[in-house]
Specification:
heterodimer, A: mainly beta, 14-stranded mixed β-sheet, four-stranded mixed β-sheet, 3 helices, elongated, B: 561 residues, TIM Barrel, ten-stranded parallel β-sheet, nine-stranded mixed β-sheet, globular, formylmethanofuran dehydrogenase activity (chain A)
Chain lengths: 259, 561
Amino acid sequence: MKKVIIKPLREFWVPVEAERISPDIFAPLSIEEIRRLEVWEGNRKVTLSDLFMISGDDEPAPPGDNEIVLSGDFSRVKRIGEKMTSGTIVIKGDVGMHAGNGMSGGEILIDGNAGDWLGREMQGGKITVSGDAGEYVGAGYRGESCGMRGGEILVEGSAGDYLGEHLCGGTITVGGDAGDFPGIGNRGGAIVIGGNAHLPGAEMASGTITVRGRARVLPSFQRLETVEIDGIRFDKFLGDLVDDGKGELFAASVEDGGR
Amino acid sequence: MIIEGGIVYDPINGVLGEEMDVSIEDGRVVEESRDGEKIDARGMLVLPGGVDAHAHIAGAKVNTGRIMRPEDGRRGTEARTKLLRPSTGYTVPNCYAIGYRYARLGYTCAFEAATPILEARHTHEELEEIPIVDKGALTLFGNNWEVLECVRDGDLEKLAAFVAWGLRASRGYGVKVVNPGGGEAWGFGGNVKGIDDPVPNFGVTAREIIRYLMRANEALRLPHSVHLHTNNLGKPGNYETTLATLRAVEDIASSRDRQVLHVTHMQFSAYGGTGWRDFESKAPEISDYFNKHDQFTMDMGQLIFGSATTMTADAPLEYGNARLLKAKWSNHDIELEESSGVVPLVYGRKNPINAIQWAIGLELALLTEDPWQMIMTTDHPNGGPFVNYPEVVALLMSRSKREKELATLHDLASKRSSLPSIEREMDWNEVAIVTRAGPARILGLAEKGHLGVGADGDVSIYDVNPEKVDPSKEHEEVKAALAGAKYTIKGGEVVVRDGEVVAVPQGRTYWVDASVPEDAEARVKADLVEKFAKYYSIQMSNYMVQDAYVTRPRVIRAGVI
């Protein structure tokens, strides 16, 4: 196992575009070569060593045998683990936007909070967040008809708005609450929300959304029956009927005013 | 500049693959150049610069496509360089990318196909930002209230005066007619079902609108004919509407040495069947008609598999597309003039309808015997982006390539079209006609599309030797050579070398200034004053395209006095 440890040298005031921090890119490189990788800090091109202290194993290893440990505040460092296919990234601290963009394999473990667009267009692999995540977890690129297509995202805390927007596959599990419009425009996949959710499943065509807490349900969802899952009784809905959708929505408790 | 020793195809001047020099001085082709600059084109194909007579490259609907499609923007991004500004997009590229990509293909002239007068300022703002190529815009007249009223009143003189005024107001080049009457009916959620269906509130029919606009066009002796997007476009069985339209105007004569009507993106108007289930090609019927009627021309509107962004003033068509495909949809009401729509879609090889559509475009081009009646287009970006022109040319030149492609398509493409039986393979002369000489002649651009003395110094040089390469077999080589010109020369300046843009001059904008009798113009003005006071959301003074919007104009004079 090749292990590389990265710590910020200072606080970042403008975002750093760090899509180069990925096991696939680090695997064949020595520490010195990793230090010389170019990244953008705002509108300036810098090397990783200008921003971070980097240490670890020098020997090349297959990507799957790579672990990158990020320690410190990475909340303004974006696109970590973008398009990674294997290996592991462990972040001990908060991470910025677009972590795990389009990743197809491997694992990202975030011991802290994640920014917006976590796992955008993810295709495979697993992301775990011990804290909260921002808006658009597992969502699509602006304008695309598919967001996440596969893999797994687990957020132990709460998630922001538009959780799993245009989800086409894979699963997203949130321990706490979700914000507005989780699962908007979904065309597949599964979302489980441990807490409450507001207007889940708008315009969904297919897929499943389960709200174990209370949900405000859109009037364009049709209540079908009551079902019991893991000892909890859920109201099951079909929708979104404005789009002739066949999605399934389960809500343990339905907020007044919604229906 | 002297381009030495290339193998030149210049159909307008009867040059068919001769090894010869081309001299350019002060931006024009001359007998002999003295400035000493030499370009070695030995063993290479030399053609006049390409001319695109129909593409949607500037204006409100193109920009709507960009706004609707950030996901398209990220395809085709190229960073800026010291010389070039950044490029984005595939089906709806930004303005800079449009100019660079045309130049790389060896194209030096492109016409925006549909601009309502009301949106013409926007069109010219974008045309001004498209580098390198010369350009122009066709102006929409087919659903304009003033037009409909002139047709209703049988007032041809006033109609001609309005067309002249509209071209001036929009700095437009020609008369575009899109689903005549249908765009107006769409304002009430309707459409016209054929050429004899009356337009709500006006009582006129498409037949009358087309006939009157063609007669006005010829009365004004405009360089280009009426440019028609037929009624019922995109619908199964519409070939009957197309043929009925053509038969309805057979008696109208052209006032100039050109076609009397250009029917655009014919692929979308050559459909048989009563619905999508028995959808089939009627290209042979259409081409057969064209083979017997040389006063008409068309362009292919070839379909390209993959992503496309449909955009048209045919708003009811786009509504249908959006419902059928559950796609994103933009709809636009252009006050007294038009309606329009934009819908992104993906053409699939295994989709039977798309596969048949693909075959229809090629059938039309290959079954229409006279290449001067045919322009190679993809109706960018409706059938697909113009960057795929090399693919289309390779298909026209190689039956084996067509067979190879057909094998990857839904089998209905072979069963519901005649394409598998078509043996014709275009030669370089025919390719030069359908991509350069023909569109220039059809548009009425005297200095484009050829390399005779006095022509614009626009030349494309491709690294393919027509004497050695057999396009029928070596179609991949042909396609690669056309995709990145060895040299593109614009107005005597090398703008592309080895497929890379090396200079970014600003092209000119063509527009037509047609004169009409003063009293007819006065009658039009009186109508317009009333329309602006009553209906338009803006003042007439804020409506006209001012000179400041067209900084490098090339004005073509026409008219009745």
